């Protein structure tokens, strides 16, 4: 019983933190996606660098520029509603990821340092809630929990989440450098981390498990979508083949999954 109370309190805390920032993040995305003007924009169709995305004649009167390489409109998302790029991101369309990573997230329109920290905090919160859901599915000692055991579980979960994600990002970066053979001048660690954190937005679907009851297998379905989203983002920023990016993502997620399973087994063996 105390375990269920502690789990419910932890879930309520995570939900409150997420609800506080979701509306603010949506308004921020709306402002960024509608009229971006990156200093180094790229065509969302082919990834070719262009000088400017649009020419603005007067407020609300703009003309979209065409790509010199593919002759298509460089970024049609500028005139779209917010839901259009969001839907294309969920559908894993590379052009939506190019729009977000190259034409929206840049130093002149966004404070990348603040965005990186906020994304990391949200990433860790969602991962902590994921670990909590996995522990809730293990009912071996649900009736024999004490306050000291609850405290130990919370500390263990926090350590697992922080250490597991540090190992995950480092292994991900090394696997990407090894498998994709990307030059260091093109492939900076900060840009890589930002791309991985932003492309892990599908973890937000874990919040639905606070409202509706899902089987624990739904967590791994979300993990599969996150892996595929990371692969598309990595393909966009490195311009590598999809097979190589999937391989790099699979190695990193497999190592993280190993640490999660190991942590669960250690928690179960103690009690």
What gap, in angstroms, lies between the N and C termini?
15 Å
The best one-word shape is: elongated
| Spatial order of the strands forming the largest sheet | 1-2
User: SSE order, as H and E?
Assistant: HEEHHHHHHH
How would you describe this structure to a colleague?
- By secondary structure, the protein is mainly alpha-helical.
- The protein has helices at residues 2-34, 83-90, 94-104, 112-136, 147-180, 189-198, 217-238, 242-270; strands at 54-58, 61-64.
- Strand 1 (54-58) and strand 2 form a beta hairpin.
- The longest helix is centred in the middle third of the chain and has 34 residues, at 147-180.
- It starts with a helix and ends with a helix.
- The model is unreliable at 18-36 (pLDDT under 50).
């Amino acid at each position: 019983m105390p375990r269920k109370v502690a789990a419910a309190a932890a879930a309520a805390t995570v939900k409150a933190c997420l609800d506080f920032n979701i509306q603010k993040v949506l308004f921020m995305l709306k402002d960024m996606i509608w009229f971006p003007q990156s200093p180094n924009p790229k065509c969302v169709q082919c990834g070719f660098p262009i000088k400017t995305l649009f020419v603005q004649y007067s407020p609300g009167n703009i003309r979209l520029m065409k790509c010199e390489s593919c002759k298509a409109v460089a970024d049609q998302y500028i005139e779209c509603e917010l839901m259009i790029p969001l839907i294309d991101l969920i559908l894993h369309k590379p052009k939506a990821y190019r729009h977000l990573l190259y034409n929206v997230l840049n130093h002149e329109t966004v404070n990348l340092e603040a965005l990186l920290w906020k994304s990391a905090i949200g990433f860790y919160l969602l991962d902590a809630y994921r670990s909590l859901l996995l522990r809730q599915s293990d009912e071996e000692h649900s009736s024999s929990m004490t306050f000291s055991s609850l405290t130990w579980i919370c500390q263990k979960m926090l350590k697992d989440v922080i250490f597991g994600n540090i190992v995950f990002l480092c292994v991900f970066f090394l696997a990407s450098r090894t498998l994709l053979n990307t030059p260091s001048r093109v492939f900076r660690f900060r840009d890589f981390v930002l791309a991985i954190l932003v492309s892990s937005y599908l973890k937000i679907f874990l919040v639905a498990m606070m409202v509706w009851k899902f089987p624990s297998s739904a967590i791994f379905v979300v993990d599969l979508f996150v892996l595929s989203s990371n692969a598309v983002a990595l393909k966009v920023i490195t311009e590598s083949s999809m097979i190589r990016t999937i391989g790099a993502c699979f190695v990193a997620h497999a190592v993280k999954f190993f640490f999660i399973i190991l942590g669960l087994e250690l928690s179960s063996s103690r009690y």
